[in-house]
Amino acid sequence: MSNLAVKAVNQYQSADNSSIVYDDPHELILRLMNGAIERIAQARGAMQYGKVTQKGEFLGKAISIIGGLEGCLDHTQEGTLSTNLSDLYHYMIISLTQANIEDDIAKLNEISSLLLEIKSAWEQIPDQRQQAGA
């Protein structure tokens, strides 16, 4: 596991207080995505209530988790898909940074939507594996 992925797991665990099983990479990625989505939702709430410190902390954790997701990409195995995801993760990090500076809830919503789309696609992978094996 890359250093970025380990850092992302640590950020997720520090906010979630749950144990993460390292044996299932698919489950790990889903948990990281959920963690990023949750931190963005928490940042949105902090932003709405004017809690600047908490907003920054939650967005910092979300950015670390997304950086970890980017670090999990295997560019040798996945070709164009991994490059596109890497670019998208970089866009998310920049957008979350801008959202923090500008108190822009619309940017938080956009990034949450993007993560939910990726997560939805990722959730389909086990079903595809089972169908291929049948």
Could you characterize the architecture of this molecule?
There is one protein chain. The chain is an all-alpha fold and 134 residues long. It has helices spanning 3-16, 25-48, 52-71, 75-78, 80-102, 105-123, 125-133. The protein has one domain: Four Helix Bundle (Hemerythrin (Met), subunit A), CATH 1.20.120.340. The longest helix has 24 residues, at 25-48. It is elongated and about 45 Å long.
Features:
134 residues, mainly alpha, Four Helix Bundle (Hemerythrin (Met), subunit A), single chain, elongated, 7 helices
Share of helix among residues? over 70%
Question: How many domains, in number, for the residues?
Answer: 1
| Helix and strand run | HHHHHHH
Distance between the termini: 30 Å
Q: What's the total number of strands?
A: 0
Largest sheet: none
Summed up:
The chain contains 7 helices and no strands. By secondary structure, the chain is mostly helical. Helix 1 packs across helix 2 (25-48) and helix 2 runs antiparallel to helix 3 (52-71).
SSE blueprint and pairings:
Elements: H1 3-16, H2 25-48, H3 52-71, H4 75-78, H5 80-102, H6 105-123, H7 125-133
Helix pairs in contact: 1-2, 1-3, 2-3, 2-6, 3-5, 5-6
